[in-house]
Amino acid sequence: MEVLHISAECYPVAKVGGLGDVVGALPKYQHELGWIAKVVMPCYKTGFLLDHAFDLVHQGGSWLGQTWFHFNVLKEKTNQLGFDLYLLDIPGLLDREGVYSYPDDPERFTAFQIAVLDWLSQWHHHPDLVHCHDHHSGLVPFMMAHSFKFQALRDIPTVLTIHNAQYQGQFGWDRLNYIPGFDLWRSGMLDWGGMINPLAAGIKSCWRLTAVSPSYLEELTYSAAGLDSLFRIERAKSSGILNGIDTRIWDPETDPYLVKNYGMNQAGPGKKINKESLCHTFGLDPALPLFSFVGRLVGEKGADLLTDIIGRSLYETGNAVSFLVLGSGNPHLEWVLNDFRQRHAGNFNVYIGYQEQLSHQIYAGSDFLMMPSRVEPCGLNQMYALRYGTMPMVRSTGGLRDTVTDFGDPGGFGIRFDQASVWDVCYSVKRALELYQNPRRLQALRKVMMKQDHSWGKSAAAYIHLYSHIKS
Ligand code: ADP
Ligand code: GLC
Fold first, then answer.
1. pLDDT in tens, 244-296
2. Whose CA is nearest to atom 21 of ligand 1?
3. pLDDT digits over 162-200, tens only?
4. What topology is assigned to 264-454 in CATH?
5. Annotated domain spans of the chain
6. Matching CATH topology for 2-244+457-471 and 264-454?
7. For residue 399, which atom of ligand 2 is closest to its CA?
8. Are 178 and 110 in contact (CB under 8 A)?
9. CATH code 3.40.50.2000 for 2-244+457-471
10. Which residues contact ligand 2 via a Cβ below 6 A?
């Protein structure tokens, strides 16, 4: 059996957030379960392109409205990722250093999806299933079902996974001619709120819908950036499947990015060495508990609360804690955090930018990882933190609720709070500080954290089970 994943990100080729991690890992684990899993994604100008060799496997062209575009499909030669990787190259549209946030993103991702289906129509055989991820491939289920041009693909089942419903990829009806011809009476399938909405179109047209955690699936039915009622309507074909993590890449015993590798039994001394190195780099005192934040600096993640949380916690504890932030995103928040560093040097530092290696070092060298997310469909950071023996401090929402149990509850190992508010987080910082002052308890809890199994095995099997039971 064969599945083709269509995604805008895939680690290590191009990653902005967790979508990249998921699409870089899930196919590998599906392969191990006996399915042939392939990935097709845009060919951006990333380092991966320069460091790897490719075969040109297909060339084609298509219309996007009134504009003709050419495309190439490249296949990575070595298969070293553990699955077949195809890069779809559209000169002038996709060959840029960044992944998202260009003014012509609707053109870029619509052309990408049309080209993928054009290429797929030329295959000698068809995959047994097409698996789309987020709005960048949300038009695929619609076009496969309804565009005359892709009639041959009509019977292939489609699954759409919602990683984040905040981003929907809407564009105006003036660009309807981008979508290859279909019976116009079906155009309601593309519409949401008076716009062409690729995510909504995907939700309506796919054969099966999944969200990246059971709690998030529930939340979508009452809070989904305007799509709530659609999620309620489509509930019957939906399921929540929790993401896993790639435990071969994220392993403190072998992680090449760490200053010192460690397993569960040497977590105390191992983490201490990593923490000392991290604190040395960022001018922090290794004797104090270190609270970190890794992620996109956006409102969804509660990043706008960070400076208030840090300022108030330092005041309330008499500077008895340290904070470190790694992130990029909203330019204003970047500026505010940079500025804040001058005021609290010695207790707070920030690295603005994307740094894969530093993120691993932070998961290893920190004591607590803060996630005051307003929305967190699944969240991978808390699972990485657990694996590295760092206590996640999370708001009870989405996947955070499904993966972290408060240490005050039976079998618990993390810290949970209800509101993404400065008060709630600061209260949790105080609980964490008390725990830090009881090293034996913290050490015992670390063992419980590191024993949590979030490897992909179970989730990959859940997807295969879903694939195998799909009927139109
Ligand atoms: P999201 O996908 O919403 O950003 P996730 O928790 O699912 O959130 O995944 C975030 C992923 O991106 C993790 O692998 C995290 O380590 C990584 N990440 C986020 N920001 C940065 C950064 N500035 N530098 C390095 N890695 C980052
Ligand atoms: C999204 C979500 C995040 C999730 C990731 C992978 O970016 O914001 O919570 O972990 O996708 O599914």
1. 999 999 999 999 999 999 999 999 999 999 999 999 999 999 999 999 999 99
2. 295
3. 999 999 999 999 999 999 999 999 999 999 999 999 999
4. Rossmann fold (3.40.50)
5. 2-244+457-471, 264-454
6. yes
7. 9
8. yes
9. yes
10. 17-19, 22, 163-164, 212, 243, 376-380, 399
